[in-house]
Amino acid sequence: MSLACLAVNPEYRHGGRGDELLERIESRARQMGLNTLFVLTTRTAHWFRERGFAPSGVERLPSARASLYNYQRNSKIFEKPL
Question: How far apart are CA 25 and CA 8, in angstroms?
C-alpha cells in the first residue's frame, strides 16, 4: 500500500483531522495484514515523530519503494510498527 500525501486544509487544522486520517490509514493497513507503516517527508518530520514514528533509512523500505527513492529530495524516512 502506498499513500502519496496526507494533508489537511489550513482552515481545518487543529481539529484533530490529521490524527483521524492517520488512525484510519493505520487501521486499514492492519486490515490488509501490514505490520509496518513507512512515511517519507521533507517538512513534517516532527508531526510524525509525535505520533510514534521513528527515524529509519532507505534500506528499511520495501524494495519496490526503495528503488524509487529520490536522494535529491532529501526526504526523511520514518517507520511505525502497527
Answer: 14
76 domain-assigned: yes
This prediction has a pTM of 0.89
CA angle 75, 76, 79 (to 5 degrees): 130
| 45 occurs within a structural domain | yes
- Which range of residues forms the domain containing residue 76? 35-82
| pLDDT per residue as tens, the chain (82 positions) | 677 789 999 999 989 999 999 999 999 999 999 999 999 999 999 999 999 999 999 999 999 999 999 999 999 999 999 9
- Give the count of domains, the chain: 1
CB of 45 within 8 A of CB of 80?
Answer: no
